[in-house]
């Protein structure tokens, strides 16, 4: 592997213009494809295999409605003592609805009606239903939205409280690269300048990462013509593409710069950096891709698309790192080791003169080795305390809206006027013979009315075919509450007796039931998914490190950081801790697919740091050092770059916390806090402590595995042996041992 990547790196370095031209053509093709094939994002949450989804499909077939167009609503609230169905308030409501009906793009506008159930019991709140000519999922034309808002404003001036809600007015504007993300990139650039002490070297990882993001995201956008894709998939691809793209380039450029500053020929250095650090990049990327692609086993379409789309972007980032990056390094030549900024140049010179003092990473690893048991206990206790709130994790799919929007205020008016369960109606479908359906529906209506937590049950609605009927059940609690989940369970329990007596089939659906079933399905699939991802990644890591204890330690460390991350999410998004500081205006259940997504992405990224950090320890061990010395020296070489990589990821992920969409906020926070804990507690504290405890046992591998496992040579041992006699390799300074000469040639001078 390392030899192949070495040759690829040298080829890209020599043929730089050909490689850069090829990627430029690919980028142009992606732009043309996206412009020609991109379709509007959809939000189709189809969940095959759940009762609610199967029933929903039957309801749509037996009770057909036009659900292909965008709908919305106008919520009116009359002044105290007045009603929306009588007096001046009623006249204002009627005039407003008539005006909205004449707005271009509005195909239907239905005024609040007591018989239709769109006027509250006290008469003070009414809901006008709107249908637009715009296809469902598409944004309203600006002229249409302005016309509706103008009519609403006139009603407000007449003394009514008026808000706009529904799908048409709840769409969030998607920004692929907003101000927050730009700030994250600038912070990443600042970290790179600090690491490289060179502005021109710092720009390289950011530039190549942006190319990878552009190719990956534009490719995904072009697929919207054949795949139903949510805008969240694009945001996730941008988030991951930026983070891993910058990090992967950082590892290779850091190795290359160190080698060139040590006197190695730039072309040879580019090949060696690609063969060694690039090998770690390939295997680290493979763990991320495995974790993301494995999301498809849950069999939830939108989650599958999200995972595969992000995985494709990671693949592009890896290819960029081992091809385009060496080509760009070829453009820079020996200038990668210098800086045109005087302050940075002087900083580099001072660092070069401080050869008698061990690096900070070496000093920290030495301290951890001496106090290994103390570090272990403190780290485990800290992560355990952070994980405690995770026991109160509540999942939901609806999310929370920004309370400052009209859509959120409209929902608040509906909840206050009609009760919190009005928007979370459960739909009961009864199927069977015509007489049996009528009997079962009547019996079930009487039974459900007596259930605790039920606010109202609507009259039975029979199908035209006569073999089915619908009953709408309004819970007394909101759709995201445990009480409503209990109502759903009670209805499904009560139906058994009705089915036995009447010979009918009774099922429950509706948006609330779909959301609850999704959460239950994801909760059930999470352990299986964890075992699958960790099993595949463990096999890969055993192949990479040719050891058993190191991969097991990596997986257990990930479980600790995962638990602590989930606990932090509960504390912030459910309990509201620090929510004001992070711009979270409403708390509520955690999005049901977020823990699954967190497992997939965080496990891949955690294994990234494990590979980058421990591969340097393995490299030192393979070159003949003792286990203790290999841990300290390997940690010293890799810790600075891993720390910088973690800071970059935290900056990129953290910038998404300030996005408008709640799902993006959650993803950004979860990944940011996950990387923070995994990198600085697990990898920087627990890993060296455990390696110090294990000693040589960390690298033990059973004989039968040693015979059957391929030797991928991620440390580049064979490559450095080959370069030992290569005339283009640098000559080690006098007085260094043969092992140290190998370290010099492989970039062992530190990060």
Characterization of this structure:
- With 751 residues, this protein is an alpha+beta fold.
- It has three domains: 2-37 and 174-397 and 517-745, Multidrug efflux transporter AcrB transmembrane domain (Multidrug efflux transporter AcrB transmembrane fold, Up-down Bundle), CATH 1.20.1640.10; 51-169, Alpha-Beta Plaits (2-Layer Sandwich), CATH 3.30.70.1320; 426-509, Alpha-Beta Plaits, CATH 3.30.70.
- 63% of the residues lie in helices and 8% in strands.
- The chain has 24 helices and eleven strands.
- The chain has helices spanning 2-14, 16-37, 51-62, 87-101, 142-157, 179-196, 199-222, 231-261, 266-293, 301-332, 342-353, 360-370, 372-387, 406-418, 434-449, 482-502, 511-545, 549-574, 594-622, 627-655, 662-694, 703-708, 717-723, 738-745, and strands at 69-77, 106-110, 125-135, 161-165, 395-396, 426-431, 454-457, 461-462, 468-475, 505-509, 590-591.
- Strands 6, 7, 8, 9 and 10 form a five-stranded antiparallel β-sheet that branches. Strands 2-3-1-4 form a four-stranded antiparallel β-sheet, with helices on both faces. The chain has a two-stranded parallel sheet with strand order 5-11.
- The protein is elongated, with a radius of gyration of 30 Å.
Topology at a glance:
Layout: H1 2-14, H2 16-37, H3 51-62, E1 69-77, H4 87-101, E2 106-110, E3 125-135, H5 142-157, E4 161-165, H6 179-196, H7 199-222, H8 231-261, H9 266-293, H10 301-332, H11 342-353, H12 360-370, H13 372-387, E5 395-396, H14 406-418, E6 426-431, H15 434-449, E7 454-457, E8 461-462, E9 468-475, H16 482-502, E10 505-509, H17 511-545, H18 549-574, E11 590-591, H19 594-622, H20 627-655, H21 662-694, H22 703-708, H23 717-723, H24 738-745
Helix pairs in contact: 1-2, 1-9, 1-10, 2-7, 2-10, 4-5, 6-7, 6-8, 6-20, 7-8, 7-10, 8-9, 8-10, 8-20, 8-21, 9-10, 9-17, 9-19, 12-20, 12-21, 13-18, 13-21, 15-16, 17-18, 17-19, 18-19, 18-21, 19-20, 19-21, 20-21
């Amino acid at each position: 592997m390392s030899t192949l990547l070495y040759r690829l790196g040298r080829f890209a370095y020599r043929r730089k213009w050909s490689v850069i031209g090829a990627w430029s053509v690919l980028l142009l093709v992606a732009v043309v494809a996206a412009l020609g094939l991109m379709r509007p994002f959809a939000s189709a949450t189809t969940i095959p295999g759940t009762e609610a989804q199967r029933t929903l499909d039957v309801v749509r077939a037996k009770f057909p409605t036009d659900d292909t167009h965008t709908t919305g609503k106008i919520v009116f609230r009359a002044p105290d003592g007045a009603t929306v169905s009588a007096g001046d308030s009623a006249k204002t409501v009627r005039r407003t609805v008539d005006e909205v009906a004449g707005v271009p793009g509005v195909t239907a506008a239905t005024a609040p009606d007591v018989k239709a159930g769109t006027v509250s019991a006290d008469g003070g709140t009414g809901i006008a239903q709107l249908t637009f000519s715009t296809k469902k999922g598409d944004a309203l034309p600006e002229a249409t939205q302005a016309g509706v808002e103008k009519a609403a404003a006139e009603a407000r001036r007449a003394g009514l409280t008026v808000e706009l809600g529904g799908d048409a007015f709840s769409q969030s504007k998607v920004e692929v690269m907003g101000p927050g993300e730009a700030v994250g990139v600038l912070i990443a650039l600042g970290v790179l300048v600090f690491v490289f002490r060179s502005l021109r070297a710092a720009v390289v990882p950011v530039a190549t990462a942006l190319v990878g993001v552009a190719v990956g995201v534009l490719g995904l956008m072009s697929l919207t013509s054949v795949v139903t894709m949510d805008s969240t998939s694009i945001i996730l691809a941008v988030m991951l593409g930026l983070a891993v793209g910058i990090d992967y380039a950082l590892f290779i450029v850091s190795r290359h710069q160190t080698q060139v500053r040590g006197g190695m020929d730039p072309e040879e250095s580019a090949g060696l950096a690609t063969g060694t650090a690039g090998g770690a990049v390939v295997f680290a990327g493979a763990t991320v891709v495995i974790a993301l692609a494995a999301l498809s086993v849950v069999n939830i379409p939108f989650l599958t698309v999200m995972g595969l789309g992000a995985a494709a972007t990671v693949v592009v980032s890896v290819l960029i790192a081992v091809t385009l990056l060496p080509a760009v390094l070829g453009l820079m030549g020996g200038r990668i080791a210098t800086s045109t900024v005087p302050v940075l140049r002087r900083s580099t010179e001072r660092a070069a003169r401080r050869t008698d003092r061990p690096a900070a990473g070496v000093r920290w690893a030495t301290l951890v080795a001496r106090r290994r048991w103390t570090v272990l206990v403190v780290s485990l206790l800290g992560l355990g305390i952070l994980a405690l709130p995770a026991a109160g994790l509540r999942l939901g799919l609806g999310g929370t809206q920004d309370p400052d929007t009209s859509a959120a205020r409209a929902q608040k008016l509906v909840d206050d006027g009609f009760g919190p369960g009005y928007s979370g109606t459960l739909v009961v479908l009864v199927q069977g013979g015509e007489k049996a359906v009528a009997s079962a529906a009547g019996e079930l209506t009487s039974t459900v009315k007596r259930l605790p937590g039920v606010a109202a049950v609507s009259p039975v609605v029979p199908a035209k075919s006569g073999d089915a009927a619908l009953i709408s059940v309004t819970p007394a609690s909101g759709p995201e509450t445990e009480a409503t989940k209990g109502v759903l369970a009670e209805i499904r329990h009560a139906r058994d007796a009705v089915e036995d007596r009447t010979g009918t089939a009774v099922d429950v659906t509706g948006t609330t039931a779909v959301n609850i079933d999704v959460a239950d399905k994801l909760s059930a699939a999470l352990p299986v998914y964890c075992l699958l991802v960790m099993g595949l990644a463990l096999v890969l890591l055993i192949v990479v490190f040719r050891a058993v204890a190191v991969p097991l330690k990596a997986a257990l460390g990930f479980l600790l950081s995962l638990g602590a991350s989930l606990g932090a999410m509960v504390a912030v998004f459910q309990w509201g801790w620090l929510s004001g500081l992070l711009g979270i205006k409403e708390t509520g259940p955690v999005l049901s697919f977020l823990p699954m997504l967190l497992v997939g992405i965080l496990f891949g990224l955690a294994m990234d740091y494990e590979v980058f950090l421990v591969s340097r320890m393995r490299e030192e061990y393979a070159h003949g050092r003792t286990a203790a010395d290999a841990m300290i020296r390997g940690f010293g070489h890799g810790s600075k770059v891993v720390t910088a990589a973690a800071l970059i990821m935290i900056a990129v992920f953290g910038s998404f916390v300030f996005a408008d969409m709640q799902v993006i906020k959650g993803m950004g926070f979860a990944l940011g806090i996950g990387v923070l804990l995994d990198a600085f507690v697990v990898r920087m504290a627990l890993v060296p402590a455990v390696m110090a405890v294990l000693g040589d046992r960390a690298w033990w591998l059973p004989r039968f595995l040693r015979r059957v496992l391929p030797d991928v040579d991620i440390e580049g041992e064979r490559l450095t042996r080959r370069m030992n006699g290569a005339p283009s390799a640098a000559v080690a300074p006098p007085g260094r041992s043969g092992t140290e000469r190998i370290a010099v040639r492989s970039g062992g001078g530190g990060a």
